[in-house]
Amino acid sequence: MARAFDSVNVGDDLGTSVVRVTRQTLVDYAAASLDQNPIHQDEAFAKSVGLPDVIAHGMWTMGAAGTLAADWAGDAGRVLRYGTRFTSMVVVPPDGADLEVSGVVKSLDPQTRRATVELTASAAGVKVLGRCTAEVQLD
Question: The domain that contains 84 carries what CATH number?
Answer without folding.
Answer: 3.10.129.10
